[in-house]
Design goal:
Helix content of chain B: 25-40%
Distance between the termini of chain B: 29 Å
Number of domains of chain B: 2
CATH superfamily of the largest domain in chain B: Jelly Rolls
Number of strands of chain A: 0
Strand content of chain B: 25-35%
Order of helices and strands of chain B: HHHHHHEEHEEEEEEEEEEH
Strand order of the largest sheet of chain B: 3-4-5-11-7-10
Number of helices of chain A: 11
CATH topology of the largest domain in chain A: Rna Polymerase Sigma Factor, Chain: A
CATH architecture of the largest domain in chain B: Sandwich
Oligomer: heterodimer
Structural class of chain B: alpha+beta
Shape of chain B: globular
Bound molecules: zinc ion
Shape of chain A: rod-shaped
Order of helices and strands of chain A: HHHHHHHHHHH
Largest interface: A-B, 83 and 82 residues
Radius of gyration of chain A: 29 Å
Structural class of chain A: mainly alpha
Number of strands of chain B: 12
Radius of gyration of chain B: 22 Å
Chain lengths: ~210, ~240
């Protein structure tokens, strides 16, 4: 995972002046065409941009997204942005092709987010029905917070029947999976889950009585 | 002064659109704050644009691809329709979007403090999503992408978060205020990477709360003493 290694003070990021020269030498002059789109909604200028960039964006999109339909969605979104937001292009900041490239790159991330986005945290719901069912989670955490500060949380575990406590400790303190606990105690997986659930109800009841 | 930056490889993978979308959000947020990395990424983008969109090589590759496409002319026809559709899109669509963007909630309020979010995060924050609170730490879920979950994290002043580790990876970008842990003191823009080889116990100082973006792939695990008993509840904070 060295990709995630950090540079704490990067002196190495001095500008490399060689790279800027490509900015001025684009031909045909895409920047001028973009300018005409921005100023006059010039359809002929836009069509030239489209005919050149759209197929290239599609082949770039295919490399990244692997699916024809997603690649076309990326082209459509990107080129629509070029049409609608041409006025945001600033030739002093970089080449037209770079501007279009970064739009495509951002669209690609948007598409990924859209297809990978999960609606609800169903893991939490499955594991913690007691707490999730409750309407006001905030007040529970406030109680917990107090308990933690006073170092009293352990006391509440006294209210949990032994069989349930055993499972809760194995899962949360020893960090075993439900399956591992089931195998260790030679009980069905469903029993592990229900003991956790019942144990937490007890824990919660104990907290409500004392606080 | 930003002292903690993403690695060069992370920036390169961000620029080339190869990061997972959750990690990309963290990098893009850092770029909102950091002109040094932004300049570096712009350089890479110019090179990549050249390679993917301008080079003769990509051109000949393309012509080859088009030659192959004789078998499926649909893809090119699809692009023709696309051009017509786009040209028929009225500019007022964009103006309407801009008005929406202005009214969109980019001011957030937590613990009676107001914050303005960086550009990248504005469209992700939904004011109707409830903040969850645990021991001075408030979280608000921005979204869940691939294996990563993005949260806003607000830590009240003078709060010590119990020592914890992460099942594999947590990236924190400081948005406002300041935070410290065993490795240092962090300020807005700082990009902090933690993996499962590290434990830390971040804390805020007096009169200085901290707002962060966190992107992580599993719930936090507390590692010491009574705090471990909180592990059942971190599911809800993650
Ligand atoms: Zn940076």
């Amino acid at each position: 995972m060295d990709i995630l290694g950090q540079d704490s003070l990067n002196l190495k990021r001095q500008t490399n002046s060689i790279q800027t020269q490509m900015t001025e030498s684009e031909s045909p002059d895409w920047a001028t065409l973009l300018h005409r789109v921005a100023e006059k909604r010039d359809k002929a200028a836009y069509t030239r941009l489209f005919n050149y960039f759209a197929p290239r964006l599609k082949s770039f999109g295919l490399k990244l997204l692997k699916q024809e339909a997603l690649a076309l969605e990326m082209v459509q979104e990107t080129m629509l942005n070029v049409w609608l937001k041409a006025h945001l292009f600033n030739p002093e900041k970089g080449a037209a092709s770079t501007w279009i490239y970064t739009i495509a790159r951002n669209v690609r991330y948007d598409i990924l987010r859209k297809i990978s986005s999960k609606k609800e945290d169903n893991i939490a719901e499955e594991l913690w029905p007691v707490i999730v069912e409750s309407d006001d989670q905030e007040s529970e955490f406030t109680e917990l917070e107090n308990l933690l500060l006073q170092g009293q949380l352990d006391n509440f575990y006294r209210f949990v029947p032994e069989l349930q406590l055993e499972v809760i400790q194995l899962v949360y303190l020893d960090e075993k999976s439900h399956q591992e606990v089931a195998e260790l105690l030679e009980i069905p997986l469903g029993t592990v889950k229900s003991r956790i659930r019942l144990g937490l109800i007890k824990l919660q009841q104990a907290m409500e009585q004392t606080v | 002064m930003i002292n903690f930056h993403p690695s060069d490889r992370l920036l390169e993978n961000y620029a080339s659109a190869e990061l997972s979308s959750g990690l990309a959000l963290a990098v893009a947020t850092h770029l909102d704050y950091c002109p040094i990395c932004r300049q570096h990424v712009e350089q890479i983008e110019a090179e990549l644009a050249q390679a993917h969109l301008l080079d003769q090589d990509s051109m000949s590759e393309l012509l080859l691809a088009q030659a192959d496409n004789t078998a499926e002319p649909d893809s090119l026809a699809g692009m023709g329709n696309m051009l017509d559709q786009i040209l028929q899109t009225d500019i007022s669509v964009d103006e309407a979007e801009q008005t929406k963007a202005v009214t969109q909630h980019h001011l957030l309020e937590v613990n009676q403090q107001k914050y303005s979010l960086p550009r990248t995060l504005k469209s992700f924050y939904q004011p109707d999503v409830r903040w969850r609170k645990l021991s001075g730490v408030h979280t608000n879920k921005l979204g869940e992408y691939d294996d990563f979950r993005a949260n806003l994290l607000y830590i009240e002043a003078e709060t010590h978060v119990p020592k914890h580790t992460h099942k594999s990876l947590e990236i924190t970008v400081v948005l406002a205020g300041s935070l410290c842990d065993e490795q240092g003191q962090y300020y807005p823009g700082d990009f902090i990477v933690l993996d499962n080889s590290m434990t830390h116990s971040p804390a805020t100082q007096s009169e200085q709360a901290c707002l962060c973006l966190t992107v992580m792939d599993a719930p936090v695990q507390f590692t010491e003493g009574a705090a471990r008993l909180l592990n059942p509840f971190t599911q809800l904070m993650y």
